[in-house]
Amino acid sequence: MSIPVAREKFRSFLTRKGLRATNQRLAIFDAAFAQKDHFTADQLLDFARDIDDSVSRATVYRTLPILTESALLREVDIGSGEKYYRPNRDGGSTQVAQVVCLDCDRIFEISAPFMEWYGSTVSSKLGLTPVSQRLQVSANCDVFRRTGTCPRHG
Amino acid sequence: MSIPVAREKFRSFLTRKGLRATNQRLAIFDAAFAQKDHFTADQLLDFARDIDDSVSRATVYRTLPILTESALLREVDIGSGEKYYRPNRDGGSTQVAQVVCLDCDRIFEISAPFMEWYGSTVSSKLGLTPVSQRLQVSANCDVFRRTGTCPRHG
DNA sequence: CTGCCTGCAAACTCTTTGCACGAAT
DNA sequence: ATTCGTGCAAAGAGTTTGCAGGCAG
């Protein structure tokens, strides 16, 4: 999904929900979709201010739920105090695991198709209907352990 | 593992690490192992104070890492602001998924043996060695949706 | 014009830390 | 006797919220 298309999706989502397309919301959207990697709310504030310096921290925090609800952004919680976000350029299947490198703090995502099957197991065993699933792997970098430098760090 | 055995493990862990077996630490241990379900740091403070009312919040937070390091307690992060803990009565394999019921806020654990296999996939694809894995499923209660009451709630 | 949105700053939640006193070894 | 451990209260980090004014529809 290209950025202009995603932007239009955002506008129509806002309209549909009776929300206003303010400059700040659009700046936050643009800042988010300019990112190639995961980012925090705080980083997003900086990026958005480069586009529209009137954006405040409060508005970033108020806009993030709108962007995740509309499935334009994906929230990634790696249990590190702060939450990470990333643009959902493709359809965005939930069958993805986050792999966090403990050496370089990078977050990788790799597919985990069996999670869907696992959902039905949960369903039948506990009588619960899965809404979302999250698989997170914490790992050490093999190269870092040998050389003391993480090749992906810079 | 019975509670007295676990308690002895705790004492020997403390000694081995050069830490002191204070009344507060033992009260926190006892409070934790009296629980059948998951609990928060705040709840643990209450339980521990029932045993020794001199226990402070700070000491609970300082003791929890000792208990998780010694593998007597398992930390469960469901990404809800606060962390949950539960006694590790058996050996405690890490191949367990947490299933959080969105209706009754209960946390269930069910085995997910394929996670181990998945670890090696991560390893070969990314050159990372997995340290820990976490699979969390958020789900709705089927009975709750039909009857408006969660049978496991009370 | 109306009322949703905004920035600001204060509040909040959970957790961590500095300090001087107290207790375990 | 030494230290390590403790309670207290304040500090932190990240996020949320109340309020008065501002801008989209």
How do you describe this structure in short?
2 copies of one chain form a homodimer. By secondary structure, chain A is an alpha+beta fold. Chain A folds into 2 domains: 1-91, Winged helix-like DNA-binding domain superfamily/Winged helix DNA-binding domain (Arc Repressor Mutant, subunit A, Orthogonal Bundle); 95-154, Ferric-uptake regulator, C-terminal dimerisarion domain (Dna Ligase, domain 1).
What report would you give on this structure?
The structure is a homodimer of 154-residue chains. With 154 residues, the first copy, chain A, is of the alpha+beta class. Chain A folds into 2 domains: 1-91, Arc Repressor Mutant, subunit A; 95-154, Ferric-uptake regulator, C-terminal dimerisarion domain (Dna Ligase, domain 1). In chain A, 44% of the residues lie in helices and 27% in strands. The first copy, chain A, is built from 6 helices and 6 strands. Chain A has helices at residues 3-16, 23-33, 41-51, 57-69, 114-126, 142-147, and strands spanning 39-40, 73-80, 82-87, 96-101, 107-111, 128-141. In chain A, the strands form 2 sheets. A 3-stranded antiparallel sheet of chain A has the order 1-3-2. A 3-stranded mixed sheet of chain A has the order 5-4-6. In chain A, helix 1 runs antiparallel to helix 2 (23-33) and helix 2 crosses helix 4. The longest helix of chain A is centred in the first third of the chain and has 14 residues, at 3-16. Chain A starts with a helix and ends in a 7-residue tail after the last helix. The A-B interface holds A 77, 79, 97, 99, 101-102, 108, 110, 112, 114-115, 118-119, 121-123, 125-143, 145 and B 77, 79, 97, 99, 101-102, 108, 110, 112, 114-115, 118-119, 121-123, 125-143, 145. Chain A binds a DNA duplex (25 and 25 nucleotides) through helix 2 and helix 4.
